[in-house]
Amino acid sequence: MEFKFGGSATNQKTVLGHPSGLFVLFFTEMWERFSYYGMRALLVLFLVASLMEEGWGWERAEALVLYGWYTGLVYVTPILGGLIADKLTGYRNAVIIGAFLMTLGHAAMALEVFSDPFFYLGLGLLIIGNGLFKPNISSMVGQLYKNQGKEKDAGYTIFYMGINAGAFLGILLCGYIGESVGWHFGFGLAGVFMFFGMLQFYFAQKIFGRIGLSPKGTQDFDDAVENTVENTKDAIEDTVEDAKKSGVTADRLIVIGVLAFFTIFFWWAFEQAGGSMTIFAADYTDRVLEGNGALTFKIFNTILTVVPMLIITWVLAMLFRQTFSKYALSNVLLGTSFVIIWAIVIWMLIREFNADVAEVKASWFGILNSFFIIAFAPLFSKIWQSKYNPTGPVKFAIGLILLGFGFGILAYGSMGIPLGAKTASVSMMFLVFAYLFHTLGELCVSPVGLSYVSKLAPVKLVGLMFGVWFVANFIANLAAGITGSYMDPILEEKGLTYFFMIFTLIPVGAGIVMLILNKTLIKKMHGIR
Fold this sequence. Notes:
mainly alpha; 529 residues; two-stranded antiparallel sheet
């Protein structure tokens, strides 16, 4: 009997029309994103908090540079992690090892209260663990499907929703506990769910059949690297020959280079979210609500938290129905993690409702990105499928301009802040609208870039081109941290409006250049749309 999907017989049982194994990966990835974004939401806030607030009392510039290095390196290690999985461990073992290292990383960061070296050890383990985990779990999603059609695209869409669900809950709960109870409790909570994600994946992995197993004839790592370098060198030489014979290959590689270059401008500005925008939320935003405003926020926050939790729990129940008889232990562990998360959610909401005033946590604004993605992704999907679907370069341009417009809103909101001010009370609506336009920009850029790399790159160089894309993201994230570190000097000399105008004018300018290049790039794609 021939199976419709890859993997075991149990994987043929469907949830929402997709193989059950997709949702094992969905929840594993959800908890990993919970841990990553939960920690990311706290990192800068913890570093700049005073010693009296149990933080490290760092200068903003120092904190933002460390943030830039951390988020940048997270994009470099997946290149090595993919190589290790391909040549040595296989995807499954790489995912398990990566998840275990990240669990240890969060545990080390939770121990920062005892010794500073634990904090740096934790960051290192998170960077390395992410490199092993991130590229390989995504590769397994693709192998669940035997064809390259719409069903596979829909599978990746569901997987992407898991990413956003994890980011949403991680920022919301780790941020709340970190700011309300203690930083190390927030860091530790992120690790608890990474651990549950690892265990539920480990005990359900047979559902994937032979997908993701160790490659045959594993090599020593030195040999694997040497062989990969040789193969890449040969592929580049072959591609250069093709490019000389046919301008098509050369033109398409130029387009990839242009898109990778302009994606740096987008993520350079966008990644201010966990840096300078978090500082703006903490120190320059009026986050205390009273009376009807407080009640409105409490109700909104409850709906915003409970509705996604109900949807995810419903998906969990459907997965249980299909896989519990075969993978009971994995299901019990996953169910336990949800019991814990529901307990924390209920505790948080009751605690907030009992408070006389509502103080919006600085980290809370980070959940708006995930919320707006979930809210607007279906609309954008319909637009891209309609006659109004713009070209790839135009989507890039629109995304850059929307991003710049979001920072323009922050620049306008900062006009009343005096030079050198360390605190202010700007309306939180400026941040809300900034996140809205940033997310709309992300929906134009994020799905487009990687799609065009896969379509435009020669088959032999697809892996290398994705590596180039990751390096562009590394540059963007590092530059975001370094640029953000000039927040205080610019604030003292020119003001916060000037600072945010930098992130307004440069992306908008880059977007206009992309519009000008549109026809040239379309021509160089040679029929790829």
